[in-house]
Structure formats: C-alpha cells, structure tokens
Design a protein that fits this description.
This protein is α+β, with helices and mostly antiparallel strands and 404 residues long. The chain has 15 helices and ten strands. The termini are far apart. The C terminus is likely disordered.
C-alpha cells in the first residue's frame, strides 16, 4: 500500500500538483496544498504484487491524472491582477450592476415570453463530470481486458491473478418449483439480508472480502406454471474482490464448497460454477457441474456451457424459440435432459476424460464433474463433445454426405 501511495505522490507532482497521496480503506486520497480529493483504488492493491512494471505505471498514471483533474476543477481562483483591477474600478460596479440588471430583464422577457427561444429549446446537453468520465473509461478498459482474456481462454490458455479485470463469477442453480417451499429460507445462510454480501460461514475466505465494487447479486427467473412442473433458475453473481480467488487453482475451492452446499440447501436439480465477462453472457472457465445422476451432470455441462456459447452447441431445432425470438431455455433444457438421461457413469467419465474432466459420485447419489485449472476451455470443449455424442449437435459430416 505504501509503495502505491508513494508512486502516486510522485506522479501527481510530475503533473504539477503539490500534496500527499494516502490510502484510506478502498480510496486513494490527495491531501494538502489544496482541496481534498479521492478516487477508488479498485483491484490495484490486490493485483499490485503480480502486475508487470509497465502495467503498474499505467494504472498509477491513470489514478494520478484523475486526482489532478479533480484538484484543478476545485482549485479555480480569480487572477490576482484582475482582482486588483476590480478594486481600483470599484466605483464603476454600481452603474454596471444597474445596466446589467436591465439587460438581464430584457433578455429574460425575450427568452421566456411566448415564442421565445427558451420555449423552442428541445434538449440540454448534459455536463459530464471527471468522475463519470473516469468510470466510463474504467468500464471500457475492463471490457477490453476481459475480451482479450476470453479470447485466450477459448484457445485453451490458463488464467491468473492479472486477468481478473472485467470478469464476474457465477454459481448457477436449476430447481423444480415443487422443491422451493422448504428451501427458500435456506438462501439466507449464504446471502446478507440486503442481498449484496456473501455471508456463508462455510467459505470464510470469500465472506471476509470487501472493498470497492465488491458485491453479490442474486437473480431468479421462473419458467412455466407451478402445476405444470415449473422450474426456477437462480444465480449468485460475484463482483469485485470476490472474483480474484477464482483465478487461482487453490482459490476455486471456496466456490465449489459454496455451490455444493447451496445446491443441497435449495434441493437443486442441476448446478454449475463458471466465469464470464461482466458485459457478456458467454459462459467460460467452467469448473464444477452437478446433477442427480451422470445424465444430470452431463445436462448441467451442456446447459450451462453449451447453450451460453457464442454459437450454441445444440441444433437450432432443439433450442426452441421464445416469443422474443431468442432461445426457449426451458425447451432447450428439456431436450438436453431427455437425451442425456441414458448416459451411464462410465460413458460420461470417458467423454469428459478426453478434456481433462473427472467425475465423482455414483447412482443413486448425485454426480459431480470437475475440470482442472490449467486449461480454461476444458468445460466448453466437453460440452461440445457431449452434444455430439448425444446427437444434440449439428452433424455436418452426415449433412455433407447426404448432399452429395
């Protein structure tokens, strides 16, 4: 922390602003020799030790520039020469005030009278503050970093602590509506009353994390009518400093423990843990999948990875079509589950083994599939392989043969 503050102080000085930069909680504060201004530190402190030198310098320069812009915006003072001249001409001010008042009244009448220019004004251009500009630039930078990391992941690369910017981690749960009555209250063991903090005692490594942008979101979506076997899709979405641990091999364990306990508490049918770019719905970095049997575990892999792929792994006819023109997810899930139901434990183990996956739990117990950390695209490739094995994917070789 002290090194960050020292480098920020030096950088601010190079911009021509005097003062001392200190770090207070999740903020960097420029104090002394002018108005006190601050900015969010973000993930810089967490990533500092592993960032390359050039990235450190760039991030420090961005924060310093923001502090300098804020200080200068608050430090505008009248020119001393102009102030002296105004004093010498003080006898003129009363006359000028009277004249200006008359002019203002005349202009106001012309502006606000019927047909005046103010009545014709249709829009006012918003004033964008330096803070808003900084936040917009931060979001765009995070999007670019995440997209670059995602492209590497799709080529089979591993990820690390320097790749977390712009990402979120999700625990996805699918459960039948009939199981909800006894389990809704169980969610309170994992989520704070306001719904924005992770509090489960079984994963203290995550529960104790805090800082700017560190928050939890819980989203739910219901499918169908209760009397017709309706489902609920529930997601825990982790932001900010919650994300960092998922980008290390040891750090993923708390997410897996949480997902397993949450699935049991909510009587989930299928569940998964994966990452995605905050601005995108493409699921990547899949690490853990669960179902009531091997077919259910395969269903979780294909649903959570294959139907959220840039090009879905299912044939269009199996994806259905909602009224909005988008995928009919309940229909897609049903088609996957029906095809995967016949899959045996050994068949699933062989299919996922080719992509570095491992299966645990034999019927009648739940089946769990995990993928290693070294290759971020294993789960997505396993979804594609399973879709082809189960006849869910496009069989382009067969189509080509039939067309000849």
């Amino acid at each position: 922390m002290q090194q960050i503050a020292s480098e920020l102080t030096e950088c601010v000085a190079r911009f021509g602003i005097a003062g001392q930069v200190v770090i207070e909680g999740g903020l960097v504060v420029l104090d002394g020799n002018g108005p006190r201004v601050s900015a969010e530190l973000g993930l810089l402190a967490q990533q500092w030790d592993v960032l390359p030198a050039d990235v450190r310098q760039r991030r420090v320069a961005e924060l310093a520039r923001y502090l300098v812009d804020q200080r200068r915006a608050l430090s505008v003072r009248p020119d001393p020469a102009l102030k002296q001249l105004a004093g010498q001409l003080s006898w003129v001010w009363p006359a000028l005030i009277v004249a200006a008042g008359g002019t203002v009244l005349a202009l106001a009448y012309r502006a606000f009278s019927p047909g005046g220019w103010a009545a014709q004004q249709t829009a006012v251009e918003p004033v964008v503050s330096s803070a808003e500009n900084y936040e917009r630039e931060r979001q765009l930078r995070a999007q670019r970093v995440c997209e670059a990391t995602a492209a590497r992941v799709m080529r089979g690369a591993s990820v690390g602590p320097t790749d977390v910017e712009g990402w979120v981690v999700e625990i996805g749960v699918l459960r039948e509506m009939s199981s909800m009555a006894d389990s809704d209250s169980a969610l309170s063991a994992f989520v704070s009353p306001d719904g924005h903090r992770f509090v489960w005692a079984g994963a203290p490594e995550l529960a104790r994390l805090e800082g700017p942008s560190t928050r939890l979101e819980v989203t739910t979506q219901r499918w169908g009518q209760p009397k017709e076997g309706a489902w609920q899709s529930l997601r825990l979405i982790f932001f900010g400093r919650y994300v960092g641990p998922y980008f290390s091999e040891q750090g993923r364990a708390p997410f897996v423990r949480t997902a397993s306990a949450l699935s049991e508490a909510l009587h989930a049918k299928n569940a998964a843990v994966y990452g995605r770019c905050e601005h995108s719905q493409t699921h990547l970095l899949g690490s853990w999948f669960q179902g009531p049997d091997p077919g259910g575990a395969a269903t979780a892999i294909i649903y959570f990875m294959g139907t959220y792929a840039p090009a879905p792994h299912l044939r269009p006819a199996l994806l259905g079509e909602a009224t909005s023109g988008s995928m009919d997810r309940p229909q897609a899930l049903d088609n996957i589950a029906k095809s995967a139901a016949r899959l045996s434990y050994d068949e699933l183990r062989t299919a996922i083994g080719a992509q570095g996956g491992a299966i645990a739990g034999k019927p009648p117990g739940a089946s769990t599939v995990t993928f290693s950390f070294r290759d971020g695209n294993q789960a997505a490739r396993a979804s594609h392989d399973l879709s082809r094995k189960l006849g869910l994917a496009e069989n382009r070789e067969l189509e080509t043969a039939n067309s000849k």
